[in-house]
Amino acid sequence: MASAEGRETHIEPPDLAMLGKPLEFIRADHHRQRKLCGLIEELARAPRLDAGKAEAVIAYLGHDLILHFIDEEEGLFPLLRRRCLPEDEIDAIFGMLSGEHADERRLAGDIRDALAGLVADGTPVPELPEVQEKLLRFAKRERRHIVLEDNIILPIARARLTEHDQTDLARQLATRRGIHTNPR
Ligand SMILES: [Fe+2]
Ligand SMILES: [Fe+2]
Predict the structure, then answer these.
(1) Rounded to the nearest whole angstrom, what is the distance from the C-alpha of residue 96 to the centroid of ligand 2?
(2) CA of 48 to the centre of ligand 1 (A)
(3) Domains parsed from the chain with CATH numbers
(4) What is the pTM assigned to this prediction?
(5) Residue 95 CB contacts under 8 Å (≥ 6 apart), including other chains
(6) Ligand 1 center to residue 172 CA distance, Å?
(7) Dist. CA 119–CA 117, nearest whole Å
(8) DSSP conformation letters of 131-182
(9) What separation in Å is there between the alpha carbon of 4 and the centre of ligand 1?
(10) Residue 5 DSSP class
(11) Which of 72, 93, 87 is CA-nearest to residue 144?
């Protein structure tokens, strides 16, 4: 796919029309994050640096991924904490996921800096094993994180969040993206 500027689009932009269904929007973001992980793994192993792919990763890590973490930390998780029953035993999972967000955010910052340096001089990632290890570690951890959220968090959210909660979450997601009308 090519963007308006003629540059190849490696990860499609979010479908803002889905904001009215916030849990589906978050699930679609996870699908985009899997593409991000695929790109990161490709860059980590490719004998030549694809600057377009590296720039797509730098942009995603610096914007979309951060927004997604905030959507969960400030939107989805607090709503779910309020609605979950003790038998859901979800507190420990939230603690673990939030810890992973913090770790991934730090690692994402390191990866952005490293890739920006490599783009500047055209060095392929495998020439720097320490950077390669960080990229592969990030992708592996992020994939595991998404599996947990798709298979545990989102099904519980569908079962426990009220219609009002979902409208509230939809509004938060829209506002964070500069859309101030009611998405429903
Ligand atoms: Fe998350
Ligand atoms: Fe997530």
Answers:
(1) 13
(2) 31
(3) 17-176 (1.20.120.520)
(4) 0.92
(5) none
(6) 16
(7) 6
(8) HHHHHHHHHHHHHHHHHHIIIIIHHHHHHH--HHHHHHHHHHHHHHTT--S-
(9) 30
(10) T
(11) 93
Which ligand number lies closest to the CA of residue 102? 1
CA of 99 from ligand 1 middle (Å) equals: 10
Q: Other CB atoms closer than 10 Å to residue 153's CB: what's the count?
A: 20
Cα of 98 vs centre of ligand 2, distance in Å, is 10
Distance 47 CA to ligand 2 centre (A): 31
pLDDT in tens for each of the 184 residues of the chain? 555 555 689 999 999 999 999 999 999 999 999 999 999 999 999 999 999 999 999 999 999 999 999 999 999 999 999 998 887 778 889 999 999 999 999 999 999 999 999 999 999 999 999 999 999 999 999 999 999 999 999 999 999 999 999 999 999 999 999 998 654 4
Using an 8 Å Cβ cutoff, are 55 and 135 in contact? no
Measured CA to CA, the distance from residue 91 to residue 159 in angstroms comes to 17
- 171 CA from centroid of ligand 2 (Å): 18
How far apart are the C-alpha atoms of 20 and 153, rounded to whole Å? 19
